[in-house]
Amino acid sequence: MKADKIFYNGLVTTLDPSKLEATAVATLGGKIVKVGSDKEVMELAEASTQKIDLQKKRVIPGLIDSHIHVIRGGLNYNMELRWDGVESLADAMRMLKEQARITPAPQWVRVVGGFTAHQFKEKRLPTLDEINEASPDTPVFILHLYDRALLNRAALKVCGFDKDTPNPPGGMIEKDSKGNPTGMLLAKPNALILYATLAKGPKLPLEYQINSTQHFMRELNRLGVTSVIDAGGGFQNYPEDYEVIDKLAKDDKLTLRIAYNLFTQKPKEELADFKRWSEMLKPGEGTDMYHHNGAGEMLVFSAADFEDFREPRPELAANMEEDLEKVVRLLVEKRWPFRMHATYNETIDRALNVFEKVNKDTSFKGIHWFFDHAETINQKNIDRVKALGGGIAIQHRMAYQGEYFVERYGRDVVRNTPPVKDMLKSGLPVGGGTDATRVASYNPWISLYWLTTGKTLGGMSMYPEERLLEREEALKLWTLSNTWFSNEEGKKGTIKEGMFADLTVLSDDYFKVDAEEIKNITSLMTVVNGKIVHGDDDFKHLAPILPPAMPDWSPVRTFGGYQAKRFMVHPTEVKSCCPQHEMPKLRRNSIEEAVFDWGLGCSCWAF
């Protein structure tokens, strides 16, 4: 047996108990065939083997996000200006102003979540006056978490909001003393008004959506992600909105492994949706790169609570149990895995009553089912989940909303929100994720920072020392543990012979770097299915070149995605930021003028 690739001279964290550390890994045909010392692994080399020197960099299994909205996010990524990682509101507004300048009518400038006001040094959102000044003519839509959206006057006009527009159910259009909309839309108590307004904006044509999805996948690769579980989403209909991802899968152009759940779209039609889909698909149907994963995260609308901690916990409808029972009975009879959105313990308590009732008639045994989020679940309900063979997928939403949670519920309650240590102690399957792209950023390193430090992006410490995870323990939630949630145990999540060849070479050593620097880790090289899908610095030449983001005014062309600190350099230092594009002068064109003037570094990294 020989190898097509050998990665050597590294610091390999395998997460395999039988061989925790190694220096080299050999791959063949998308699988790992040897893990060990350089000498041991080099025995598999032949003339055609590609040998890659890891330069003593830390290597970990590829990261797996068990809850992300990657399919919907991919369709829109090229249209979105990302404030993820931006630490100054002043910088964010300069980005907005430049993007408004280059965005043609009738397109919008969209900042669609992934950030929190607390990450800015100013500790606030922009005012509506500031937004209107930055973009007087181009429509602007800014989504902050799932609590509010800020629209400029141009956006109000194209959306048709005026003094006669009534508040929709569950939302509020803020109006001034004369009855005119101010531009502030509030989720009270749900986010329908926010994403329904966003849906009014123009969409990209199919060709651009394909390009957009490729750029989003590459952005996740840049952060070390090799697999995801897509949790569906509002305005993500099956099969219509899966055309792009289906095509990329058929054309062998995926750079992420994707397992997808199906999310019902309309109240009162949930059972019909799942009946129809259960006749179209079987769980696991597809390939190792792209397959169906079951139902959820929305099972029935009457059972969906809401994660806006600036608002009181919503009381769910009296018909929740009746609606949920019908759907869960169908899913269990069909042996469909399922996931359910549940923020609060009160929601989980009522759902478990339904699950236990169904289980008496049709056993849950063998079905991988789980709750998503579960920020306030108590020990009693953790034990009930365990008894039914379920799991819990947690996300780093508290890193973005911790301050708001404390304002409403107090510091004593936040100390155990969510109770990750209790879940693990109880032996539950627990997986890590982001819930990106709207309520939090897609950057997995924010999650690993939050799990190991207990801090919000605003710097507030939420958890006592005994509630924090060790770094390896947290990493397992993002690798080995997440395989349970897609029924892929024994296939990935560790660097071990026979596993999928999915691994990540880190920019900084996760196990040694200062805690605050965990947030800034990226991938120098990402390998999926034995293929190098992303490369940076000395490994850049090994990765395929991705065509520029489409259309040509895309914010991705100017700013990229997550604003990593390693690319934020002072204009006077610009010559050293990118050896391949070293420039004799500061400005080459209007886009790069904006990039360099704001200290964001060379724009080439965005591609």
Can you give a write-up of this model?
This protein is α/β, with parallel strands linked by helices and 607 residues long. The chain is built from 19 helices and 23 strands. The strands form 5 sheets. The chain has a 6-stranded mixed β-sheet with strand order 3-2-7-21-22-23, with helices on one face. The protein has a 5-stranded mixed β-sheet with strand order 9-10-11-13-12, with helices on both faces. A 4-stranded mixed β-sheet has the order 5-4-1-6. Strand 22 (523-528) and strand 23 (531-535) form a beta hairpin. Helix 7 crosses helix 8 and helix 10 (320-333) crosses helix 11. Residues 566-607 have low confidence and may be disordered.
Throw out a few tags for this protein.
globular; 5-stranded mixed beta sheet; alpha/beta; 607 residues
Describe how the helices and strands are arranged.
Elements: E1 5-8, E2 11-13, E3 21-22, E4 24-28, E5 31-36, H1 38-42, E6 50-53, E7 58-61, E8 63-68, H2 70-76, H3 89-102, E9 109-112, H4 128-134, E10 140-144, E11 148-151, H5 153-159, E12 171-175, E13 181-187, H6 192-198, H7 206-222, E14 225-230, H8 243-250, E15 257-262, H9 270-280, E16 290-295, H10 320-333, E17 338-342, H11 345-361, E18 369-373, H12 379-387, E19 391-395, H13 397-409, H14 411-414, H15 420-425, E20 430-433, H16 444-453, H17 471-477, E21 503-506, E22 523-528, E23 531-535, H18 555-559, H19 590-597
